[in-house]
Write a structure and sequence with these properties.
Elements: E1 4-6, E2 8-13, E3 21-26, E4 39-41, E5 52-55, E6 69-71, H1 73-84, H2 88-114, H3 117-139, H4 149-157, H5 164-167, H6 176-191, H7 198-216, H8 221-234
Parallel strand pairs: 1-5, 5-6
Antiparallel strand pairs: 2-3, 3-4
Length: 242
């Protein structure tokens, strides 16, 4: 069975060293019964795992093999929308991308209704044949493609990662679950002044991980922290979030 991870990230200010900004990543598991993990790190931490990771196009995910990636179509749709507001070739590229995004989401909705993976693969195969030459046209080194050439080439390089959701059971075409799980960390970042030390980073990682996991498991964070402190005071093993 394929292991599934979804990942999202946001900027997080730290003063270790001063002025440095790192990514606060949140790769929640596909099952809410397993603990969610928040890390303050310059890049996502998926070493030692063979999971298929659904994420945006952030450069740090390029360390993962293409076969273990799924690009988030919600992020792609936003990028296409931005290009569609441009002019000439950029506008055409964005409109083609939005059209493709709509068809991808329609195919995914049909699969959710019917659970017919064979039909999903057939539809996605047709979309690949239809739109890969279109995107390749905007990746060509021409003056008119100046404002869309970068994204077009990036999509072609990561082409297999656009369609992993059709191949692997449990993989979704978006990382919306991870985005929602990261929301509390984003709010905390806006209300705080970041961290001043490595110890502070570890404390925030653990508190945010516990907060999100308890929310996903419909548990009381206050009760869990009470049990945790009681166990520590008595020298007992810490209660697990599993």
């Amino acid at each position: 069975m394929t292991t599934i991870e979804a990942s999202s990230e946001t900027d997080y200010p730290i003063n270790n060293p001063p002025g440095h900004t790192q990514k606060l990543g949140h790769p929640p598991r596909s099952s809410t019964s397993r603990p969610a993990v928040t890390r303050i790190t310059p890049r996502p931490c998926f070493e030692g795992t063979h999971a298929v990771v659904t994420s945006d196009r952030w450069w740090a995910y390029r360390s993962l093999p293409i076969s273990r990636r799924q690009l988030c179509w919600s992020h792609l749709k936003r990028d296409f929308s931005s290009h569609a507001e441009g002019l000439a070739a950029e506008k055409e590229f964005g409109e083609h991308g939005l059209e493709l995004s709509q068809k991808v989401f329609q195919a995914w909705k049909a699969f959710q209704d019917t659970n017919d993976r064979r039909e999903l693969k057939h539809t996605i195969s047709q979309l690949q044949r239809e739109y890969k030459p279109v995107i390749a046209g905007y990746a060509a080194k021409r003056a008119r493609n100046k404002r869309c050439r970068g994204m077009a080439r990036n999509l072609l390089k990561a082409w297999p990662a656009l369609w992993s959701f059709a191949k692997h059971d449990g993989v979704q075409p978006t990382n919306n679950h991870a985005e929602r799980a990261l929301r509390s960390a984003v709010i905390y970042r806006k209300l705080s002044l970041g961290t001043q030390s490595e110890g502070g980073e570890r404390r925030i990682e653990r508190l945010l991980s516990a907060h999100t996991t308890c929310r996903l498991q419909h548990r009381s964070l206050f009760n869990y922290l009470t049990q945790l402190l009681t166990a520590h005071a008595r020298g007992h093993p810490a209660p697990l979030l599993t």
